[in-house]
Design brief:
Layout (H helix, E strand, L loop, with lengths): L10 H4 L15 E2 L2 H13 L2 H8 L35 E5 L3 E5 L11 H5 L7 E4 L11 E4 L2 E2 L11 E3 L1 E3 L3 E3 L5 H9 L5 H11 L11 E2 L2 H18 L26 E4 L10 E4 L4 E4 L2 E4 L3 H5 L1 E2 L2 E2 H10 L17 H33 L5 E2 L1 H6 L20 E2 L5 E2 L2
Amino acid sequence: MRAVSDNAPLLHDLMPWSVAPLRIGRGWPVAPDAATLRARWALFTAAGEEERAALLHPSRARGLYSRVGQLPGHRTATTALAREEGPCPEPVPIAHGAYDRLWLIPDHRLVDAARPELWRVLDERQVFAVEQAFLPEAGEPPVSFAALLPDGRSPAGRPGRIRPLFRQPGGRDPNLAPGLPAVLSAAYGGAVTAWDVLAWVAAAGQPAPGGCRVPFPADPEDWRAGVALGERLVWVHTRGARCADPAEGRDTGGPRLPGGSRPYVRAPLPAAPGPGELEYDPEQRELRIGAGRIAPVSPAAWQRTAGGVRVLEAWWERRTAPGAPGSLEALRPAPWTRSSTSELLETISVLTLLAGLDAERRELARRLAARPADARVDGEVLREAGVLPVPAARRRPASVLGHREEGPDGQFALV
């Protein structure tokens, strides 16, 4: 992919409100399944205070007597963990890194930096753009997308920022530079929505040392082609939760490959596979797990990386690597289940579909780079239109508190 012009606007300016990644501070409140989290919680609350303190893995931000409020949208206890005896808060799914999904206990007392401002705008209309670490040699897309709350983690370098598409619940107050949709609408001869801008970012965003840059074309045909491509990308990234359109072949269920390339279990997988049992045979195009076989698996899906780490290998390690003896992390998920197999097959499908769209992303980048410099809606055009620089207030969260949030020990928080 060709280098993008330094005059192409930064995503930092196009979607100005951003939030740092979650910092959980301990491994045990996160797991590949909800049942494991409930079992860990039961062990934690059954322990005496001294053992409980050791199991918690206290930090400067969180200890047995830390005073914190509820996470927005979750009616969890706010008493000190030292006195906690209730049931496990209902675990919630989160987006882990660029392509994985895990479960989290949504208890503010367990998370060092939970980013409540993200929880306040999390709903069925929201989608999050997550900038990835800049790794020019890896050739990875600069942004991933999630309908679930993302943790924003990256295996390499400094993790990127999380940028919600909307600043308020219900799809209200798009997180865009003021005036941007109007300028683009005039340039392309039709109404441009926040979803259109997000789709264009997915299709045309390019990695750069200072952050993701987003070149805008002057040609309406380039714009429409890029938006259509971006809608497919966001649909795949969010596993059908956003940008679904059955008329365009984008169903609301998880993305599926055509019959001839859809992965299946060709030989039964072991009941309790170990961390060293995952292998790939490029000639047979199959994933091997002990004596088990999954095929077909394209080389592009196997080779796909996030933060410089192979996605499937990292996915496997998170589900099979043993935890430290005596820790709550040592309580691992149950032996391999049908649900585990379904998750793996869906992840393979997602990676395969994204790899298939990479060629279209590269072709769009080549087409945009070949256009003359005056055939772009670049940073200079946006500055002349008053879109840039972005007002400082747009980089801060909006006031969204429509209900009372419980603070420490049952007091109500003021936000």
